[in-house]
Write a structure and sequence with these properties.
Helices cover 77% and strands 0% of the residues. The protein is mainly α. It has two domains: 63 residues; 161 residues, Orthogonal Bundle (Tetracycline Repressor, domain 2), CATH 1.10.357.10.
Amino acid sequence: MVLLETQNTIKVSERKYMSDIEDKQRIVEVASRHFRLVGISKVTLDEIASELGMSKKTMYKFFPSKEDLLTDVVHGIMNRLRANVESTVASDKPFAEKASELLGHLGRVIGTTSKQFLIDLQRFSPGLWKELEEFRRQRILTSIRAIFIQAKEEGVFRRDLNVDLFLLIFLNSVQNIVNPQVLAEQSFSMEEALRGIFRIMFEGAMTDEARKGSHLFETPLATMAER
């Protein structure tokens, strides 16, 4: 009898645990969509709770503050992007396919992220912004060094290209242009900035033959993400 009661208690606890995980995931998904669309400052926890048909008590149980929720949202974005990029880089596909996939991964993020989100993130959560910047530099952009080397080995990039110098210039171009201050002052979008950097850098590094046959940068990133 005692064993049966214990088993029933465990089952109830497991169901509650799974329900909590699902509720938390729903909150993060809705918050991510709203934060990235209109910015962080214009979204409240009460609005998210209302859309989900969830009580404020339940919302605040998982996320006592907007900062806590924002942290989960940003970490989710980083984790998904890292997994996608690392999978692409580790594959045995040729450079052109890998480059197309990478642009698609970035397109999925950029296509659903507004300038205002980046501006608000840097303004209201500088620590999280710094974490995102470090992630972008150390975990994502430097992981593509391998495909730069591959491009050189396949004859897509020129033989005289210094890969480490090329990577350094590429990293600093992204960091200094695709940031809230610059984007807020310029008419071009985040997608246009990133696609422009890729095109200028990559076409400059390509051999004449590879450049003539390449159509990699003619398609918008958002369209590439749909493939």
